[in-house]
Amino acid sequence: MIISLDSLGQRLWIMGVLVLWAGLLFGGFLFGRYEPLSGRRMPRWTRLASSAILVTLGWSWTIFLVNSSLIGPALIPIALGMSLGFVGDLALAQVFGGKQSFLIGIGAFALGHISYITGMVWLAHLLHLTSGGAFAVGLGLWMLVGVLGWFVVAAGAGQLGNLALPYSLLLCGTAAIATALAIQSVFFVPVAFGAGLFVISDLLIAAERFRDLRFPLLDDVVWLTYGPAQVLIVCVAEFGLRFLSH
Known about the structure:
Oligomer: single chain
Largest sheet: none
Order of helices and strands: HHHHHHHHH
């Protein structure tokens, strides 16, 4: 990824954080030992550490650009969204313990997606990417995906399955706004791709919980889609800077 920051020090910092993230996530998978009981290779500590690194990445972008770029203020909710995602990761990994870990995790992710949507809508306003048609297409497409995905993996799964519907629509709302940006500018296609990967990752988690989906390395596949998804969303600043310099 070519970093569009003016400062060499800032570019090196961002690239270093990205390299560290990739080393933790992909290195954890490549060099981890397969555990038959859990069906995964990636150690828990490398997964959670990679997520923590993305919190650093999000706030780094914000600190670098909040006072020096048009898009800077919109990055605050993006960084907050990643921070809430990290809380969700900790909860789903049962770091906090307790029977409510799953609900705490989903709640944190839901708030994170509200933050992502806020940041992206703010970004769209700042960059004048506010085409009603683009937003209608994005919302129409992804709300349909959200309903169909919920119907396939969570419908009929009790009260928790019913609660999964608004969460599914919220998750797809992030993808919808990212898609609306991508329709208006090719620079935001990676962000839309990332948001789509996030939907796939969460569908796998839901299918595992509600439909008893099982296959070897399922948890690793979840993280190998979720991690890159978060990177592409958190790095929306990079694509916004490219748009501004075009």
